[in-house]
């Protein structure tokens, strides 16, 4: 069994790992062997990383690939708590203790060719069907997405991400010319709904609605949107 950091080939990356906006590598890509090997019980790989996930604004996810070109999110065979219960005699640290040392435990029942540890804005997900529903952000409770009944004809998994923008970040970017709220992302992208959905986004820090709205058409409040970021 081998587990090593993937080596560059002729000065280029050994894999074609495409990331969405807001995502980034948390460590170098892992190369595993034997490729496609399966195990009778789940095994764990502890990976050191350099991501900052302590403020709950970001989370770590594991991507896997059999060829370095096509990637998908890794499905865990069991939770970290279940894995620790299955191996009580092993000297294994809890996920919380590992996080303090910036180490992440990956649990798998088989080896792809590559594992990639990726950091992204914290994502809140749930299945939404014909009856509709609401999704609340785990980062900002005021941020939510509401799907009315009939907006979807079949049940799909919908995700909500919030990238907080602090007043200090905004000031450094544009000075005192403008203020910006947190950035809200809804997945899947380019999805068409049969009825309008409602997205709720908190106003910028230290702002009041009356600072932006007026009784005339001179409102300074603007809503910007983007498909690609």
Automatic annotation (TrEMBL):
Transmembrane segments: none annotated. Residues 1-120, 122-229 form the ZU5 domain. It holds the Pfam family ZU5. InterPro entries: Multifunctional_ANK_Repeat (IPR051165), ZU5_dom (IPR000906). Keywords: ANK repeat, Repeat. The keyword Signal does not apply. This is ZU5 domain-containing protein.
């Amino acid at each position: 069994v081998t587990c090593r950091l993937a080596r560059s080939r002729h000065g280029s990356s050994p894999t074609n790992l495409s990331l969405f906006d807001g995502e980034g590598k948390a460590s170098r890509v892992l190369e595993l062997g034997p490729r496609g090997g399966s195990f009778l019980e789940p095994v764990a790989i502890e990976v050191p990383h350099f991501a900052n996930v302590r403020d709950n604004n970001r989370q770590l996810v594991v991507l896997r690939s059999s060829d370095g070109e096509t990637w998908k999110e890794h499905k865990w065979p069991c939770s970290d708590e279940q894995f620790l219960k299955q191996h009580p005699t092993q000297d294994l640290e809890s996920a919380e203790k590992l996080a303090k040392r910036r180490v992440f435990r990956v649990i798998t029942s088989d080896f792809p060719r590559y594992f990639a540890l990726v950091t992204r804005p914290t994502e809140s997900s749930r299945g939404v069907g014909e009856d509709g529903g609401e999704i609340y952000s785990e980062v900002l409770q005021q941020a939510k997405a509401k799907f009315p009944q009939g907006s979807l004809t079949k049940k799909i998994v919908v995700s909500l991400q919030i990238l907080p923008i602090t007043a200090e970040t905004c000031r450094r970017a544009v000075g005192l010319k403008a203020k910006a709220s947190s950035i809200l992302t809804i997945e899947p992208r380019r999805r068409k709904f049969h009825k309008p959905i409602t997205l709720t986004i908190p106003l910028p820090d230290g702002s009041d609605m009356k600072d932006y709205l007026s009784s005339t058409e001179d409102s300074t409040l603007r809503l910007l949107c983007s498909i690609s970021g």
